[in-house]
Write a structure and sequence with these properties.
heterodimer; A: alpha/beta; Rossmann fold; Ubiquitin-like (UB roll); de novo design (two linked rop proteins); 3 domains; five-stranded mixed sheet; 16 helices; B: alpha+beta; Glutaredoxin; 2 domains; about 10% strand; elongated; binds flavin mononucleotide; binds iron/sulfur cluster; binds FE2/S2 (inorganic) cluster
Chain lengths: ~425, ~170
């Protein structure tokens, strides 16, 4: 496995409370370079290395930025999604904590590219301890003229405001996040209108994840093409993964795409506790899919994971060893959605409730064949007819479990 | 119009000043309501937003009070009911539930040490035991969160007891 520091290059290299310290390691060189380039050249650069949004939906980032640029409007917004509510996902936390100035620099570059006049960071309430760090970094950027009017004398204005959530997973969903920023309860709304044309305060809005943003400054300064030298196919560069569950060294690791799942779990995360065997691995948090240990030698790339029935998603990797049964795991995962569904639309509110009831019946050994059929049907209806992405993806784990562990879904309930 | 909808509640001068300071720090921007509520609820030792305070905020921010209650009831970290001085939150999501001291064991130990059940408050109003969804400290399990702060690597009954003793 190649040891590479690209996104994590600055970790521990500067004093995160001081812009001078950041400047001394070449901070804002990327912004200085960016403003000499055509905005479209920057979105093309991002597209050329096929950066996919790191928030979970895997949307082409270069394309998102060039589309955002093309939207008409002189009051565009740029929003950084730092809600990171997906379970087993805590990589954005490390980027914010260890390299806050890089994130701000990335947003300023983003503003230049898409033509945004204002930016928001929406950070989960759980990360309130990093508010002072970000607020102070923003203040210093203003003092040095990196935020505010006429940035670097290039005649563009941009400033950033920080918003906090207060414990609602659904607020990571774009339209819910926007409502929260508008000072309301974060209930998702129907699309269209899409955020890119009518987002927060009905202004055109470009929304990206913390990690997606964080790539940009490094990419602009990557003259040797280090990023492009990692990975292959549609999975280029590096990825931050967060590994937790039954591993010896849970944590966040930057890996080049193509590292095998085995290397991630055994070399980086220190292997499974007490050398237990692996029952299952969940990729991409509670809304992600699962696989059994046969996935260990699969390279971590968008294509190969998809081929193995799972997805990169948020980059979370949850390892469950044989001490926990598949059914018990599914019930734990279901609790998350029963708790976090906003309850606004019927398929998701009722579906999550009834799936929980049937899973509990299975645990008691009382589920009938009819129950199992109904459960599968509810799962399908939810994924097709829920109002937002939460309800659409809530049953990913269950549906993949039905495929990978069919023996668990026998009438009468399961082992 | 708004004034007609706003009940008048007398708040102590001291409390009003503290709330005003928080509002000023957020430039009296109503869009920051979620964060304002987070800070305001911590002014109260019982970590909640009392009804008179909600009305006061509605008036100061010039938004309907219903909007404020909608937020308080929607966001998991906000409360309209009094809580304990130290609400102990145990994560109920998979990563934490499968760990060394897992959620079930953690709850058992807490229930035993505090002599209350999940959801209950100790007689002196100091501790409640609650469960919550993942709070982004999956790599620090076994952990609990108390008033926003995560206390991690609580892998023995002794460590949990020491933590409780340290909270006065
Ligand atoms: C229920 C739900 C929760 C989400 N939570 C997050 C989140 O916490 N962080 C995030 O970046 N994206 C989250 N997303 C995805 C965002 O809606 C959006 O796709 C993403 O922020 C776009 O940025 P990207 O293209 O850079 O990934 C969530 C989506 C859904 C449906
Ligand atoms: S799908 Fe679920 S979370 Fe989304 S709007 Fe419907 S009830 Fe709310
Ligand atoms: S699963 Fe418990 S903090 Fe994330």
């Amino acid at each position: 496995m190649r040891d590479i520091k690209f996104l994590t290059k600055n970790f521990g290299k500067y004093d995160t409370s001081s812009i001078d310290s950041y400047l001394s390691i070449g901070g804002f060189d990327a912004l200085k370079k960016a403003v000499t380039m055509e905005p479209t050249a920057i979105s093309d650069l991002i597209a050329s290395v096929k950066v996919k949004g790191r928030g979970g939906a895997e949307y082409d980032m270069g394309r998102k930025w060039s589309q955002a640029r093309d939207v008409k409007g002189d009051n565009k917004l740029l929003i950084c999604n730092a809600d990171e509510g997906e379970t087993t996902t805590f990589k954005d936390r490390e980027l914010i904590k260890n390299d806050p100035f890089n994130l701000l620099e990335a947003m300023i570059i983003g503003a230049y590219v898409v033509g945004a006049v204002e930016g928001f960071i929406y950070m989960r309430g759980e990360y309130a301890c990093y508010r002072p760090l970000l607020l102070d970094a923003m203040r210093q950027c203003r003092e040095k003229g990196f935020l505010g009017k006429n940035i670097l004398g290039k005649g563009f204005d941009f400033d950033i405001k920080l918003y906090s959530g207060a414990g609602a997973y659904v607020c990571g969903e774009g339209t819910a996040l926007i409502r929260s920023i508008e000072g309301k309860a974060g209930r998702p709304r129907m699309k269209p209108p899409f955020i890119k044309v009518s987002g927060a305060f009905a202004r055109p809005t470009c929304l990206n994840n913390v990690e997606s943003f964080s790539i940009v400054p490094h990419l602009l300064l990557d003259e040797k093409g280090e990023y492009a030298s990692c990975g292959s196919g549609n999975s280029i560069g590096t990825k931050m993964v967060s590994v937790a569950g039954n591993v010896n060294r849970p944590g966040v690791f930057e890996i080049p795409f193509g590292t095998t799942v085995r290397e991630i779990i055994y070399d980086l995360a220190g292997g499974v506790q007490h050398n237990h065997g692996i029952r299952l691995i969940q990729f991409g948090g509670a809304s992600g899919k699962i696989a059994d240990a046969s996935i260990l030698d699969t390279p971590y790339t968008y294509e190969a994971l998809r081929g193995a029935g799972v997805m990169v998603g948020s980059g979370g990797i949850l390892v469950i060893d044989e001490r926990t049964s598949v059914l018990d795991f599914l019930r734990m995962n279901q609790d998350f959605f029963s708790e976090e569904s906003c309850g606004q639309c019927t398929p998701c509110r009722e579906g999550n409730l009834h799936i929980k009831i049937i899973l509990d019946k299975m645990a008691e050994g009382k589920a009938t064949e009819e129950d199992l059929r109904v459960m599968e049907k509810i799962a399908r209806v939810m994924s097709m007819s829920s109002l937002c992405g939460l309800g659409e993806t809530a049953q990913n784990t269950l549906m993949s479990a039905m495929r990978v562990f069919p023996e668990v879904f026998q009438a009468g309930g399961a082992r | 119009m708004l004034a007609a909808m706003t009940k008048e509640y007398p708040l102590s001068q001291e409390l009003r000043e503290k709330i005003d300071r928080i509002l000023d720090a957020h430039e009296r921007d109503y869009t920051q309501i979620v964060n304002i509520l987070m800070e305001v609820q911590d002014l109260n030792e019982k970590h909640y937003v009392p009804e008179p305070v909600a009305y006061y905020l509605a008036k100061k921010l010039e938004i309907p009070v219903a909007r404020i209650f909608d937020c308080i009831t929607f966001y998991g970290q906000l409360s309209e009911k009094p809580r304990a001085k130290y609400p102990i939150q145990v994560c109920n999501s998979p990563s934490c539930r499968v760990n060394a001291v897992n959620t079930v064991q953690m709850l058992e130990i807490l229930e035993d040490l505090l002599d209350i059940k999940l959801g209950e408050t100790t007689y002196d109003g100091r501790f409640t035991i609650e469960t919550t969804s993942c709070y982004g400290a999956c790599d620090r399990a076994p952990a609990v969160r108390i008033n926003g702060k995560v206390y991690d690597h609580l892998d023995s009954r002794e460590k949990i007891e020491a933590l409780l003793r340290s909270l006065q």
